[in-house]
Amino acid sequence: MRILELMGYEYKKMFNRRSFWLNIIAGFLLMGTSGFLMLTGKVYLEGEFAYTHMEYINAEKEAGSSINGIRLDEKTLTEAQKKWNERQKLVPGKDITKDNFLEIQREYLPYVFISRLGRWEEDEQNAQMFYEDRAERQMALWNSGKLSDEEIKYLKEQDSRIERPWKYAYNDAYGQFQSLNFTNIMILSILIVICLSPVFAEEYTTHVDALMLSAKNGRKRVITAKILTGLSFAAVLSLTGYLAMLAEQVIIYGKGDLSAPMQVILELEDYAYPFSTGKMLLITLACSVLASLLSAVIVMMCSARMKSSFGPAVTGILMAFLPVFSGIVPESFRGIHMFVQAFPGNFGTYKSIFSNQLMGIGNLLFPAYIYVPVFYAAAAAVMIALAARGYLRRQL
Amino acid sequence: MELELDCIKKQFKNKIAVDRVSFRMRPGIYGLLGANGAGKTTLMRMMAGILRPDEGRIHLDGIDVSEEAYRDKLGYLPQEFGYYPNFKTEDFMMYLASLKGLTKTRARAVTRELLELVGLSDVSEKKIKTFSGGMKQRLGIAQAMLNNPRLLILDEPTAGLDPKERVKFRNMISRLGRDRIILLSTHIVSDVEYIADQILIMKDGRILHAGTLKEILSEIEGRVWECVVPREELTRLAEEFAVINVREEKDGIFLRLAGDRKPYPAAWPVEAALEDLYLFYFRQEGEMYV
Fold it and tell me: Are B40 and B155 in contact (CB under 8 A)?
């Protein structure tokens, strides 16, 4: 009860700062804007205005939804390839004009979506080889990532659990959400860093620490209240942020079918984990929120150990930007790659959560969405202890 | 009730701030006098439990300074009183009451009572950042008393108060000092002179003298002098004695001095005051007050 009361005051201190509100408003505006930027703009064919992006997305949504629930079996794939071949032969300017473009798209788009999943690039693609081609691509990917035989065996076993033929669903909303998650994680990390960097440091800069440390509840209970405030704030903020961004994409692209395998989302087709889209989203949200919580713990630790909130803010912002450079670490640098992927400013993207690189302990192998949270829990426990020690020892 | 300081020592790098101080305090008002750097604030911070002594123990009725039960009986006004600028007065008091373990109902009643006592009840809804220095100091005094402390430590409580506020403060402390231990440090000698039951003189981290005003003053009894001297004598006397007062007169310079011997053949001994003692003890080697 006392802790809740103290948490209330911690929130009050946070809400009393004008920078807090400016930060939150700016951050959410930025995320919201980046989410619907795809809707803006126009497309010109042969120099003439043909349609708006919004019209095109609506055509896609309509086309994709028309094949929701269809099984990607031999019959569908053969039909898809036939239509796709027809579409390839249409000549822009002659067969495709600004007047008939959307109509043509409506007819062929469903098959274009399937062709994208199969990564068809030539006319003479063998539709029957859809799943075999995918297996070949997977093997090439796993070999380039220098996966061990045990890892490959594990991933193959996981892959075999995906129900075949796949059930198709137009789940572009979730694909877009995944694509935007990289920037969303970064923006939310920055928001958390700026809002939480004064949590402990403010007491030193305002000199209230002397009053606190000499008060009955000014030590363990205050530390507990501050840590719980930071964690609850990070959890609520990030969950609100991710759900709002997800809702935005669902409004734009439609709700699709959450029971379809996550592999029917473009960019996720070669991943081996046997999750439905719904489960994939839950795992993504859970991992993203966990990453936000770890960001919060890191910032609070810095705040407790540094003299002002400037230091923790700079450290936290650098930490949030670090994943921008994660792409330069090749998968073959296994250790560094796994470490960078687990970084809180990065963990939450499909590449990091559903990474093919696994953590081996004895005979057991663990995917990133299991071992990273365990690592986070251990790291958070150590950092919370360091934060408490830093706060108490600053005066002593 | 007894507060015991047992051979307390604190050193910062090469500087010994508090040097093996031992002292016992019973209910009453204790005035801590000392020059800047004498170790007063360090000693008070250790007594408030926010600075750990390198050596020695502090306990109140057997409760160690590091225990929660000790802090439950403590009220503290630090030299640099901290506050959240955007908090309203009443909210700030309620927060500190919560830190001190008061229930909400009790906190509300005590807050109202204390704000009334320090004359801040009409600004209880105002943000602290709008306060003058004196108002902030009064708020600091009020917060220190929220938990009705048995041990009240006030570091420079009268700093920033105008004369009227200081008199009010002195009267308030006098009333409170009957059933609790109050330790206050100040540079304003008259504050201590008026209200302290016991005076502690601190220099170079050690308690030089402790006792009632009368006991303390007996230390310099017969060593305070007044005289009228020619102007050319002033420099010589200022080098040798602690000059407490200087006044131009038509037949020379009137001086009040403290020293071990008669400073001038025509000088006459006078009754000592606490300010004389302060200047006598805290006069640095070769330091002149003129």
Answer: yes
